[in-house]
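Lab meeting, action items carried over

1. Structure of the two-component assembly. Owner: GW. Status: complete.
Input record:
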Amino acid sequence: MADEKQVLQRSDAEPQLDYEYSIERPQAAGKTLKRLWQTTAYAHGRLVLILCSVLIYTALMIAAPWYSAGIVNLLWDTIKASQSVGAAFQVTWRQGGEEIAFLALLYFGAWLFYTFQSYMMLTFAEGLNLRLRTALSEKLNRLPLCYFDGQRTGAVLSRFTNDLDKVSEALQNGILRLFTSTGLLIGSVVMMFQFHAGLALVFIAFALLAVVVTRLFSRVTLERASTRQQKLSLVTGLIEEAYSGQVLIKAFTQETRSAAKVHAATEELAWATEKADFAINAIDPAIRLINRLGQVVIALFASYLLIGGSLTVGAFQAFFQYVNQASEPLTEASYVINSMQSALASAERVYALLDEPEMSADPAVPVALTQAKGKVVFDHVRFGYADAAGPDLMADIDFAVAPGQKIAIVGATGAGKTTLINLLMRFYDVKSGHIYLDDVDTASLTRHDLRENFGMVLQDTWLFEGTIAENIAYGKPAATRAEIIAAAKAARVDFFVRTMPKGYDTIVENDNENISTGQRQLLTIARVVLRNPPVLILDEATSSVDTRTEMEINHAMRDLMAGRTAFIIAHRLSTIVDADKILVMDHGAIIEQGTHRELLQKGGAYAALYNSQFAPV
Amino acid sequence: MRTLIPFLKPYKGLILLILVITIVDVGGTLYIPTLVADMINIGVYSGNLALVLQKGALMFAVALVAAAAALLACYFCVRLSALLGRDLRNALYDHSLTFSTSDFERIGTGSMITRTLSDVSVVQQAFIWSLQMILPVPAMCALGVIMSFAINRTMGLVMIGVTVIVLGGAIIITHKASFIYEKMQGFLDRINLVLRENVTGIRVIRAFNKEQYEEKRLRKTFEDYALSAIKANSLFFGLESLAIFVMNACIVSILWLGSNQVGLGRMAIGDITAVTEYALLILFYIIMAQMVVIVLPRSRVCLRRIHEVLQQAPEISDAVTTVPVLAGTETVCRFDNVSFCFPDAEAATLSDLTFALRRGTTTAIIGSTGSGKSTIAKLILRFHDVTGGAIAVDGVDVRRLSQEKLRQHIAYVPQKAWLFSGTIAANLRYGNEDATPADLWHALDVAQAGFVRDLPGGLDAPVAQGGTNFSGGQKQRLAIARALLKKADLYIFDDSFSALDFKTDAALRHALAKEVAGSAVLIIAQRVSTIAQAEQILVLDDGKMAGLGRHEDLVASCPVYSHIVSSQTKGGGLHG
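Predicted assembly:
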């Protein structure tokens, strides 16, 4: 089961293929833009500067061809004049050189502003990205645990990575391109009309045709891309299950059949890919063809005008420069707009996460309590999710634990055992009632101080990428190797660790399947043993461990638990028969409490549960 | 790149075709401004409208030919990429089938999936981009320079200068940037890893009061990433900036030098437009190629990961000459001083095991988590090879048998009851392709899987991937039925009864006994009740044999075993 889970977790983080066509639209573009503007308050001066630069750059780029038209005409007239007298013409400072130098200055200015704004935008975008990312990570620690209960890990991750990268990309390229392209398009068309309205209209006609074709293409592209996505999912499913069940395929000597199945699926995927990629990539040559056909008509028309004398050589050349300057933004328009939209949608999701309700604040003047004796009292505790309709998940939990007692909590899945622990650790806040640790209301402690008193082992074992030794020492980074090994021995995991390729220095990787769930549990137990907390909480800590090892761990734990309060959730009742108090839970309420003997005699729910686990040997 | 060469070999013709068509496309692209220049020249010099029309018609034809070439090149290129992706995935999958369990674990299931799916997609995309954006660059540079020379020598020299400066800059910057981009990809992976740990481990982090520590860890990954992102993008903008500067300088110098040439009568006035356009095209193509080059490091990483899989020689492969299995010996399988140790491990997983599995008898293995029980099954099936001693099946060392032959004689129910998506019948027929519905029902009944009768569709009821639409106990029983359909000399049940309740467990074992009477049976279990009736019980403790015998003897003579028994009977019983 653990392996399956790992595989699934893995695939939900599968990076979305960059080139996948999915057009997202923001819910409230205006609001998000305003919010972005507010977030970047620290850089407004810079943004205004960038905007000014963009305006000047665009103006210079529009002016240059116009000015060069004049130069060409001037030169051509001078050349014709000198050729008519049979003299060779050479450019000198007086003869055209001055003008060419000024044109060079125009271009140089445009280049300067372009470089300036690109660089300013780049550092701004990456800076904003870092700020938002840090804000998100701080937010993570202020979110109540119930937020994570309802979220897929992959979804949370993509807020940090995909979404922020999209925003940053849009800021670096998209916005600048959007502004300069719009400016160049409008400016170029205006200048075209200055030269010749008829020619300008020809350009507009072909430009509109290009826009229409782009639209048609994008519809086909979306369709084909989704077919490909379907085929890809088929192959993904097939490959996932074949890899997960590889042992079976080999044990039943099904290699040939399985390969044939995979080959058939990849063949279909190849077809779908070919079609989708063609649609995606053929748009460029198609648009280029339209642009060129436009140029043919314009060239013919312009030549006619040139021969008739109503268009100068310089104007002819300049007109073509404007055509090129205006075509480029049009080809890119749909791409830029799509990427801006999906960036806004991403920003929206990032803000939504930042706006999630947070945990209640720690008390302003907290009580200090670091080495609790371990008296725990639940005083008429109720709990329910704030926004959930229906009855509370915990109704009137009321019990007391003396220091050093061993408390077992039993009940069916969903009875509320883990919720009880979550309340004790203040992962959730109670709705009403109080929880006391050493007679101090836990709400009057900081969460940090409260948790300092607990050591917890969960059923869901969590290890991070680092050595086994580092993982065991997570709660006590200063621990010596000898302490770590002692803890591992107490958790009965020392032998296993030594069978690993590098012993205690073996790196735990998420992909590593050499560590089974049971062994992971033992490692997390070692972690708590090393931390040596006043109160122990074991939540199904040995559910994936065999009975003998479990018993040995219990023996080791008994030493650890001596004189300490311990909460134990277990579904194997054999491990908790010696508890000082057993709480039997059902539907968020304690339905029975007492010792093993008392509860058996009572013949209630506990006795029934206990007898169902009895097996004749 | 070297990884791709064998995969491209079958498509040499297609690649050549793409090359030729690309040159046609580039030629057409450059010819269009040439024709525009011609039209200007005709307009100003001769004013011959008929000639202009002729050029216009030619331009129209060139535009069409170039577009056709571009579309064809695009088509062949996506086709090549699609075929390449298919071939890579097939090769990866086929190669994975030769992997032993250790081979597979070395890479990890999740990573294997990523490599076969998204890594290949990334490579495909990079391949398309390379063909479309990088391939035309040399043609564009060469043809651009040649056509400039055709117009005028001075213009040709200017063009060479422009090309060399920008191409040189592009190569230097790419070289620098590719390191940074590769590092950046590493930082991004790191962000993902640490974030994932933070989200999945939120409870533990809070329980251990490590929020500040984790925040610092995250911040560090963010900063590393941001710094290298700024560096990499600055480099890219540097190149773009250089290209634009050169472009501007080029327009101005063509105007100046070109006018001189026109003044000398060596060039026509319209040609200035043509040469300027050539320069712009060359620069544009180089910049576009640069954008692709920047994403290549990522695909190089993916390609390397694919290469790793393809390169990994299977740890276990069939001997050159194999012995056909001689069925029918009394001892189906025998362990002689078998040891097994993972490479580099300090301690052996199994040491010095000697025992035999005999026809008509049941052998059970019991021991702690991690004591090496499942490894024994995997050794028999040759998913691992022993590191000491030998395992013989029907008297022949398993290493001298072909893996296929060996496995044909064994029916196996793995610890993880995995089912494949499809129908129940299809899953069961894994064990025996020719099984009739009656056979299937019989196997299901023996495996106590009568619940299939109540399913809509019965044998044709759908099974989700991994069998997730069935409970653990149901999956186990289906997996047992699947194994029973296979007529084998040895049946291995690896912890296959753990999710069954005690009554079903007992009934199943009772029915099973008749079914497999003529074969050897190996049961790996954690529950004493499951194995108490076995003819021999092997007790494992830290990979060593702690006892071998019947239940009654072991209770008396083997402390480890009696310990296990008492751990399960303390206070009356236990639930598995």
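2. GW to write a short summary for the group page. Key points so far: Chain A has a mean pLDDT of 85. The first strand of chain A starts at residue 376 and ends at 383.
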